[in-house]
Amino acid sequence: MSLKFFKPLFDSFSRPLQEPNIEKNGVFFSYFLGILALLWFLWLFINKSKNGQPPLPPGPKSLPLIGNLHSLEPELHTYFASLSQTYGPICRLWLGKKVGIIITAPALAREVLKEQDTIFANRDVPAAGKEATYGGKDITWTPYGPKWRMLRKVCVRDMLSSSTLDSVYELRRRELRQTINYLYNQKGLSVNIGEQIFLTVLNVITSMLWGGTVKGEERASLGAEFRHVVSEMTELLGTPNLSDFYPGLEWFDLQGVAKKMKVLAKRFDKIFDSRIDQRQKMDRNSDGQENTDFLQVLLKLKDEADAKMPLTITELKALLMDMVVGGTDTTSNTVEFAMAEIMNKPDVLSKLQQELDTVVGKDNIVEESHIQQLPYLYAVMKEALRIHPALPLLVPHCPSETRTVGGYTIPKGSRVFINVWAIQRDPSFWENPTEFHPERFLDNKWDYSGSDFNYFPFGSGRRICAGITMAERMFMYSLASLIHSFDWKLPQGEKLDLTEKFGIVLKKKMPLVAIPTPRLSNPTLYE
Ligand code: HEM
């Protein structure tokens, strides 16, 4: 609308204020206000019917171009929790050109993950994620649709289902017994617990994938190296990256995130290539005997896949990456946090040992079949997952269409962070939320199946964690074995530190180092 429209009005006000003009000016002034009000309402009306949308959620003031990037803090989960204290359970940040939405209430999480699940079951793939998974070809980053469904089905059916896991119990047992034996040989010495559990989980996963494990002398050094690589990868995945917020800048990789990720991913890629090569040679030379590792199943699927939905070699390697990176750090960090919390609470430790002594006995070793009879251990796992959920903001979701949540507009393509860490510590729901108190789970009131939006450490809806059964078994079996086989104390002069460090996977800021003392009746129980 041209400004000329307003000229007579402006002219009338610019005339000198003469007596006969006062009344006339008053009338003009009323007209002016009236027209202004009319125009305002008209603008609102046109704007509303043009967008047909409620506003964006509230959020902190943003600067031109950079939005709120300047005020992000490294511990994103606690920073987001503090924003929700000021702006409410749904708030907005401008991440450069991208809208970030933070959700910190069960009812709103339900809207996103259940009521509008198909729209929000997508991902806004970060540059680091693309680099780590051959361009986002794995389960985690593939958009919701037939390809994702196929990848997920293959993994769950052929590797992560209860029946497949039952059939490879011997692998878990072998690896865990090896860890217990290693710890026995370290009695009286300081041990990095997270590293040992990481290595155990890694060995279980790689032996399920292609039959290979890390043994003997390599155990300590390779375990530490692999853990370092996975940990750096998950840290990079959680790093706010300019390439993600200004797509035009992705090519420049200003923070070097993609470059660093490329180097890390290459380490695994080389291993994958050599294992695939080895497996293909073995298959060519075999006399058709059945082998049962996952890689063989995948290679068979690749060759057989019908043309409509082929499984390519790149997707196959991306799946291997998901299992190795997604399955190891998550599980071992949760066990490490649980061990630290238990050592901080001697009454929890003694209740756990009592339960284990009654069910397993001090002249016996823990088997996975005992786990069903250990309700206190189960409560300890649930409490560890409540207070330190491995993925504190889940894997961010992304709507494929503009939608309304909690009365606010969530634009298509936003990055939606669901702060499960804050929801699981909400004092209006959880009594003494920062206290590690497994008893709160003893009455089986909450489970992590994704149906309760006060407690969902594995997420919920279509994108719920694909490895819950595996995580559950590895956690329960390893924690039970550690607590049953040894008494634990801190090295002299060390203090227990429970501080968290943010990454897409949460970890302990300071590694838990502790000294094992054997507590079973017979040294042969450690062989
Ligand atoms: C304590 C251990 C674990 C925790 C707390 C955990 C938690 C999660 C969470 C919160 C998500 C994202 C859900 C969402 O975006 O809404 C996820 C996704 C995923 N998890 Fe886990 N996880 C664990 C262990 C594992 C293991 C052992 C594996 C496999 C070996 C695994 C494989 C995956 C995969 C493939 C996805 C992507 C699913 C998809 O996008 O469709 N996780 N996990």
Automatic annotation (TrEMBL):
A GO MF term: iron ion binding
CDD domains given in the database record: CYP76-like
Pfam families found in the cross-reference section: p450 (PF00067)
Residues reported in the UniProt entry to bind heme: 465
PROSITE patterns for this protein: CYTOCHROME_P450
InterPro entries: Cyt_P450, Cyt_P450_CS, Cyt_P450_E_grp-I, Cyt_P450_sf
Keywords: Heme, Iron, Membrane, Metal-binding, Monooxygenase, Oxidoreductase, Transmembrane, Transmembrane helix
Cofactor: heme
Chain ranges passing through the membrane: 28-46
Family under the similarity heading: Belongs to the cytochrome P450 family.
Protein name: Cytochrome P450
Species this chain originates from: Anisodus acutangulus
